[in-house]
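Researcher: I've been going back and forth with a colleague about how RNA chaperone ProQ might be arranged in three dimensions. Neither of us has a model we trust, so I'd like an independent prediction. The organism is Shewanella morhuae, in case that matters for your notes. Sequence below.
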Amino acid sequence: MESTEKLTDTNAILAYLYETFPLCFIAEGETKPLKIGLFQDLAERLADDSKVSKTQLRVALRRYTSSWRYLKSVKTGAQRVNLDGEPCGELEQEHIDHAQAMLKESQEKAKAKRAAQAPKPAAKKAPKKVTTPQRPKTERPVKPAPKAAPVINYVQAQLTDLTKKQRVNVKLGMTPVAGVITDINKEDIHVQLDSGLTIKVRAEHILL
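Model: Here is an independent structure prediction for RNA chaperone ProQ. You can compare it with whatever you and your colleague have in mind.
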């Protein structure tokens, strides 16, 4: 049974939209341009859904449409889609130009941020002239290098590896979301995410 707890995390709301409208909101890979005015359709369709509010939906929709993979999908020849994935007409050139400008600006900001965070090389000092014999230097003990943070290497799960109450990670968008398996029905795996949302996925979407 799905939890009726209200969703507040934007990632959890996006995961809910991926599950509820899979032909409109694409969790992985290339997306599809959305119908103009889709927010109103979305608000009406989920008007009786206690999990999300209009404000939360607006924030989640803004994050989805400002992502690089969405902006890249706004291109010549692409068709807008409604909540059911049905075509709603081709894109206008001004919308394509606007999306490409936003993408370029976002990528340039990310590049500048990475450059600002990169360590600056130390300035080289000119070697000093030695006029007197140098005393032999005493060797200082070498400090061990700090241990690097552990890197999580996820492993693609096999259906035979999965059991009820097992903690797993579900591939939703760019970042895996943690949860617990609540039921296994043939190839359908029911997972309750830590956010409280329960989703149904296949084994190929689960990481261990």
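Researcher: What would you highlight for our discussion?
Model: I'd start with this: The first strand starts at residue 79 and ends at 81. After that, consider the following. Residues 93-117 form the longest helix (25 residues).
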